[in-house]
Design goal:
heterodimer, A: 257 residues, alpha/beta, Rossmann fold, 6-stranded mixed sheet, 40% helix, B: 444 residues
């Protein structure tokens, strides 16, 4: 589904991603872990099309389409969804109007019929139930007055509404207490299917107890330095990242000789 | 002044005044106003209140005072087009300041008293309606005072509340560039209520229209007035509007000013005099300033008595090389204890060539008051824009949502739904046209 080849990206002239390679197939869940500043969130931003990143080298394909040629909204319509680490509050834009507009533009792109007001409300209700998101949405501005946890849960709710192929969750677990984490994870597990894929960006192994990944990758210094199965996350939890950093720098030194 | 006296328009106006008063019996008020204008001429950038609004280029054209009434069919068609879709209202149509009985639709005669201002003698007029602000140094007001001739005088008797809003449509037409100075008077009796929507329309083919209009409003005790001013004009229109509102105790006044593209020049002066205690005042403004337009809103609220509330929100969206000026004065005089005065002005610049000059100005002489003001000038938050786009919302729709959100503080207060929809649809239409032009230059 997603194919990243030798991806390099800069922000303000500084190279952040230094040759990422990653293949994600439908039905898979990939976890990306790594120490602070390793480029995890940058990778998510580049995939979603954030404009302050400049891709200098490499390719990203989504089901045979060149993702890097698309605007952020086109990527979303093609099925990319980024759950934000810090969802934005937009006073004056109502949750409902926002969802309606997004869904309508996505459905137009996918050649699906528009939903009637009734169908839309029914879907909203069902998806809210599915991801156990009880916040009242009507007559409220987008994310305004939502707690940190509610904002994260609103991201998962939007994910459920927009039904993307590829969901990238950027530290959706950060700032959640254990109950919220359980609810968010169970929502995501319900949304998993053989047709879609998830990329979970996280610092902690904790999330992966609830959402079991097929693959775990460690990102360090803008590259994936190690990949493995879910056991790798446990190993990281136990040993930290230092052994990987040492390995990486050792290899780099060898290469220089 | 030497420079000004050379302006052909200045001389034309002096001649017009002398001709008008060849018998030497001019009312004292007109004479004083004329003298004030003659001495100093048109306002210029040297005047503090006109620092950022230079009207000199707009005065340089050849103007005529000759009005010409268009054919009935043209009038009817124009009035039809000026109507607001879905608005069930009475209509007062004025053609070149003259009340047009055929096209006006008014309620039962017991609900109002309507006169042509030219039929009211100067003595009666100045004894009853003399402006609070003559002599306050506003020379455009002085000029109007010296020379105004036409307009309407509408009185709503005590305890009469109109069952429908009134749409006042003013049309101006002539064969040449026109310089117009009208004066309108609206008097709300005690316990009366009315909602007025005002449109000014010029009928001309590429000719210029300069309107120096003055409106005086009196809101008596316990009366309530809502005024919507819709300035949706053509590029060759130059509008200078002076509105003075005097509120008596326990009255309520709501003013909505919608300034849309594309008159070249819009200058609104709003003077609210709170002449009694426990009044309530809401001044709401939305200005969308298009490329090469200048929109200037000067407002002043005078708190003279205790326990009055005033609330002012002006929001501006600027496109292209648009320029906006906002000056919001709030005076709280010593007796005006327990005043609540709130003012907010926010500006959204959608182009790096747009300019805003904003100046909140609070002068408070009472010590037990709650007054606040806030002013911002900014651009779209890129993070909000990205968030919306990352959900599949196209760039234009995302901007539209953000502009809608920006204006929400004001639009949510428009209680008249057809007016709200009309104004919003005009804003989006103007904005979309402009995005088509500026897409690449601003966001490329």
């Amino acid at each position: 589904m997603l194919s990243i080849k030798n991806l390099h990206a800069n922000i303000e002239g500084k190279e952040i991603l230094k040759g990422i390679n990653l293949e994600v197939n439908a039905g898979e869940v990939h976890a990306i872990m790594g120490p602070n500043g390793s480029g995890k969130s940058s990778l998510a931003s580049v995939l979603a099309g954030r404009e302050n990143y400049e891709v200098t080298e490499g390719e990203v394909w989504l089901d045979g389409k060149n993702l890097l040629d698309m605007k952020p909204e086109e990527r979303a319509r093609e099925g990319v969804f980024l759950a934000f680490q810090y969802p934005v509050e937009i006073p004056g834009v109502s949750n409902i109007n926002f969802l309606k507009t997004a869904l309508s533009e996505i459905r137009t792109h996918r050649n699906l019929p528009q939903l009637s007001a009734k169908e839309f409300l029914k879907m909203t209700r069902e998806k809210q139930e599915l991801v156990e998101f009880e916040a009242k949405l009507a007559n409220r501005s987008l994310n305004q007055g939502f707690s940190g946890g509610e904002k994260k849960r609103n991201e998962v709710f939007q994910l459920a509404m927009l039904e993307p192929k590829l969901s990238i969750l950027d530290e959706t677990d950060s700032g959640l207490d254990i109950d919220a984490l359980r609810i968010v994870s169970s929502g995501i597990n319900k949304l998993r299917s053989p047709e879609n894929a998830f990329v979970l960006i996280t610092h902690y192994q904790r999330l992966l107890e609830y959402i079991v990944p097929d693959f775990v990758h460690v990102l360090y210094n803008g590259q994936i330095v190690k990949s493995g199965n879910k056991d790798l996350a446990l190993e990281l939890e136990e040993k930290g990242y230092d052994w990987l950093k040492e390995q990486f720098h050792g290899n780099a030194a060898l290469n220089e000789q | 002044m030497k420079k000004l006296s050379k302006s052909p328009l200045y001389q034309q106006l002096v001649d017009a005044y002398n001709q008008r008063n060849s018998d030497g019996n001019a009312a004292q008020e007109r004479e004083q106003a004329f003298t004030a204008f003659v001495e100093k001429g048109f306002p210029s950038n040297r005047d503090e209140d006109w620092k950022f609004t230079n009207i000199a280029p707009f005065l340089a054209d050849d103007y005529s005072f000759e009005l010409q009434e268009p054919a009935a069919a043209v009038l009817e068609n124009t009035v039809q087009q000026a109507r607001i879709p879905g608005l069930d209202s009475y209509t007062l149509v004025l053609v070149n300041g003259k009340i047009n009985g055929t096209l006006s639709i008014l309620p039962d005669a017991s609900c109002f008293k309507l006169q042509q201002l030219s039929e009211v003698s100067d003595v009666n007029y100045f004894n009853t309606y003399k402006s609070e602000h003559v002599g306050a140094g506003n020379r455009m007001l002085a000029l109007n005072t010296a020379l105004f001739n036409e307009g309407y005088l509408l009185e709503v008797p005590a305890s009469i509340v109109w069952d429908k809003p009134l749409h006042v449509i003013q049309l101006f037409a002539g064969e040449q560039n026109l310089f117009i100075q009208n004066r309108n008077v609206l008097v709300m009796g005690r316990f009366s209520g009315l909602e007025v929507i005002e449109s000014v329309i010029s009928l001309k083919d590429g000719r210029k229209l300069f309107v120096n209009n003055v409106t005086q409003v009196k809101v008596a005790e316990q009366a309530s007035l809502i005024q919507y001013q819709i300035q949706h004009n053509q590029a060759e229109d130059r509008l200078i509007d002076f509105l003075e509102v005097v509120q008596e105790k326990n009255s309520r006044y709501d003013h909505f000013s919608f300034n849309l593209p594309g008159a070249e020049l819009i200058r609104n002066n709003l003077e609210i005099v709170l002449n009694g205690s426990a009044t309530e005042t809401h001044l709401m403004g939305l200005y969308l300033v298009g490329d090469h337009q200048l929109t200037d809103n000067h407002t002043a609220i005078h708190h003279l008595f205790p326990n009055c509330d005033s609330n002012e929100i002006y929001k501006g969206v600027l496109l292209g090389k648009g320029k906006a000026v906002f000056n919001g004065k709030v005076f709280v005089e010593r007796p005006a204890q327990k005043t609540n005065a709130f003012q907010q002005n926010n500006n959204l610049l959608l182009s790096d060539k747009a300019q805003v000059f904003a100046k909140p100005q609070l002068e408070i002489f009472a010590d037990d008051v709650k007054c606040s003001h806030g002013c911002t000038v900014g651009q779209f938050d890129p993070e909000s824009l990205f968030y919306l786009r990352s959900r599949g919302i196209g760039e234009d729709s995302a901007r539209k949502l953000l502009v809608e959100a920006f204006m929400f503080d004001v639009t949510q207060r428009i209680t008249n739904e057809p007016v709200k929809e009309y104004v919003q649809s005009l804003i989006y239409e103007k904005m979309e046209n402009s995005f088509a032009d500026t897409n690449t230059s601003v966001y490329g």
